[in-house]
Structures are given as structure tokens and as C-alpha cells.
Amino acid sequence: MCKDTFLFVWYCLTEKDLFCNWKKFNKTHCSIFSIIAAKNMHLSTWKNVAPDSDFSIYNIPYGVYSDGKVPHRACSIIGNEIIDLYELAKNGFLNGTVENLENIFNQRYLNDFIALAKPATSAIRKKIQHLLSENNDELKNASHLHTLIFKPIHQVKLLLPLQISDYTDFYSSEYHATNVGKM
After folding, report:
1. Are 11 and 60 in contact (CB under 8 A)?
2. Is the alpha carbon torsion for 158, 162, 168, 169 positive or negative?
3. What is the 8-class DSSP label of residue 183?
4. What dihedral do alpha carbons 21, 27, 31, 37 form, nearest 10°?
5. Residue 53's closest CA among 121, 3, 11?
6. Contact 121, 37 (CB under 8 A)
7. 154 catalytic residue (yes or no)
8. How many CB atoms are located within 10 Å of the residue 155 CB?
């Protein structure tokens, strides 16, 4: 899957439950950076992330991937690597957030994950940011698991992350309608 397609379908649940259309994404105008960065201005990561990367520690989106060994799993991304969320949960790194994450992260779509609601998805995002923070060695020191948890983006196939069964009108939110009106 090419980067443009990946960016278009990547699901991003932000602090205000917004769906970001990555093809039209602009760091200076999209609320994800202004909201998350304002709360976490001091974060830095031990992972090697280019300064101009769209996927820094401030942007921890959710998606679904597959590769030669994995038919489908929930993931996130940091820099140029996906983060296998199933492996994070299986190895205890997400303990204390939500029960039954292994099952949820091993599904084809993120629908059940989203159904957990904002407090759960936010808690998991914050835990991932904490694990990737420069001053946290918990995941960094588990180097024997890095090949299971982190995979180069060019070695995986990113899948459509949501199953939409009926028509969904994303224009229905007041936020979206207001922003379209400002264009």
C-alpha cells in the first residue's frame, strides 16, 4: 500500500473524537496537533523519529495491519514503524488500561475497540506515549520483543481499519460543518 493510500485510510481518534482526513491534513490547522501537543509539549521519544515525521510521539493513531505472519491486528505508528498493539497487550505493557485487549487487538477491524469509548482509547494512547517516552525504559529495555512489537512500515500492509455497514454521514457533526464553512 502506498503512503498516500495509507495516510488516507489511517484512522485517527483524537481528543475530540474527530476523524482526520490525512490527504487534507495540515499540521498547522488540524486540531490533533494543537490539542495533543498543547497537553504534552515536553514529550520526547527514545525511538528514532525524523523531526518532520507525521507520526511523532504527539500523534499516536490507530490502524490495522497485516504481514506474512499476521492476517490482521490493531496497530499504531511511530516514525516509520508500526506498533503491534496485540503484542503490547500480550506482553503486559498495556496492563491497567482495559481488560481483554488481546482479543480486541486481534480482530480484523477496530469497531470493538472504538466501542470501548473515549476514556479507554485515550488511556491506551497515553500509555503508549508513556512507553515511548525518553524517560521510560520499560519497553526500551525489552529489546528481545522489539521485532514483534515494532515493524518497518514498508514491510507491512495497512488495511481499512473500520467496518462501515451502513451509510455514515461524517458531515453531521457541528465541528465538521463549521470547518467546511470556514474554507
Report:
1. no
2. negative
3. -
4. 130
5. 3
6. no
7. no
8. 11
pLDDT tens across the length of the chain (183 residues) = 333 333 333 334 333 333 343 333 434 333 344 344 445 457 899 999 999 999 999 999 999 999 999 999 999 999 999 999 999 999 999 998 998 899 999 999 999 999 999 999 999 999 999 999 999 999 999 999 999 999 999 999 999 999 988 766 666 677 777 877 787
- Those residues with Cβ within 8 angstroms of residue 102's Cβ, 6 or more apart along the chain or in another chain: 86, 89, 90
The backbone torsions φ and ψ at residue 112, rounded to the nearest 5 degrees and listed phi first, read -65, -35
pTM of the model: 0.71
Grid cell in block for residue 151:
515493524
What span, in angstroms and rounded, lies between the C-alpha atoms of 60 and 78?
Answer: 7
Question: What DSSP string runs through 44-75?
Answer: -BSS---TT-SSSTT---BEEEE-SS-S-EEE
From 42, 144, 154, 176, the catalytic residue: 176
